[in-house]
Specification:
By secondary structure, the protein is α/β, with parallel strands linked by helices. The protein is built from two helices and three strands; from the N terminus they run βαβαβ. Strands 2-1-3 form a three-stranded parallel β-sheet, with helices on one face.
Length: 74
């Protein structure tokens, strides 16, 4: 039986679908990292993303629910 924890990263996980997923998988068998603009991570900033992933290390699953809002129609 495998007793290792599964590590998840959820980008855009502080609201909406991402938050719901984080709540579903957040239990003792998993390690869940949640990041979004509201946590200070700008996914459009390559340097920030590189540093973020370097700080976490190896992971099993990446879930991306973050999105850029569409520009308003004129």
């Amino acid at each position: 039986m495998n007793h290792e924890k599964t590590t998840y990263i959820i980008l855009g996980g502080t609201s909406g679908i991402g938050e719901a997923i984080a709540q579903l998988i957040d239990h003792e068998k998993n390690i869940v990292h949640v990041a979004s603009r509201s946590t200070g991570l700008d996914i459009s900033n390559e340097k920030q993303m590189h540093c973020y992933f370097e700080s976490i290390g190896a992971f099993d699953h990446l879930i991306v629910t973050a999105a850029q809002p569409r520009p308003q129609a004129r």
